[in-house]
Amino acid sequence: MLYELASPLLHLMAHSRRLIDAAQGKRRSIAAVERPQAQFRSAKARLRRLDVHLATAVMPMAGAWLALHRFERTTGPTPNAVPLASAGALVPMGKGTLALHFAGPLEGPRVLVVHGWSASSAMVLPLVQALSEAGFRVVYPDLPGEGRSVSAPMSFHEKGRMIALHCAQHGPFDSVIGHSAGGLIAAIALEAGLNANKLVTVCAPKSLTSLLQAYLVQTDAPRRLHDGISKIYSLVYRQSPCHMGPQTFARLQANLLVVHAKHDWQVLVDEAHAILSSNPAAGALFLDNCNHRSILHHAGLLQGIVAFLGKPSDPGQEQPC
User: Fold this and answer.
1) Which of 27, 135, 170, 182 has the fewest CB atoms nearer than 10 Å to its CB?
2) Which residue ranges does the record assign to the AB hydrolase-1 domain (predicted)?
């Protein structure tokens, strides 16, 4: 594949440029020093896009497989400014290690907060801090392969099973809260046996199929792959991405709260309405003056969650794990 062949050369060119600049006494920008991986980002994106288009032209299912392969290997940046919590744990998995973080009083109601695709637990920290200050005991992992969790690539249902397996010892949970694609991971974890009474989705897509199609749009993949990527997922994993999310959302009835930013342009509010149409008994909360990420800072989010779960009777004092 063009990207895999050219990527080492692009990294070598970036390293050579840094050496030449250093030899010539040129000062590099802070961004270039801190994020050397951003060098040639545009060229890398074009190569990945060209790869998928060429594979699709030769054999559409090959293009779908390559798109899925890339989707499962897309990870977000690891934030250097957010240290591993002192009460954190690194849990061995079959394919790597899972980083777990903790906040809030030990005696508080337990909630599990799951971040989204191509992100890390740092993204949900505003919500974690608000929940812990309200008296909840919060467990928030870095998903496998994201943040401080080092792992070989996994499918979405594998990630959900790992969360269910390795977070179980810190439950049972009053609720799982999933932001964006973390809502799907949370649903998969519940189906895998995670002991939790309720689920809160925050700006979540209605299904894994919906997320995969959004990825194809984001990467400018050929239109014909929109059906093909779901088919290839089902063939590879014997799991239908169309059912990942909807089955759980419908089953939970009144134990589901669907929260969405009214002006979310990354995961459209239509996704929330689709979830609610499959479960009229679910609670709904639509928030103004926020988007896909800033909703995690919104005071209305904490208020809605507390109203749904119930206010902790005595927050107590935070203690180490």
Assistant:
1) 27
2) 111-278
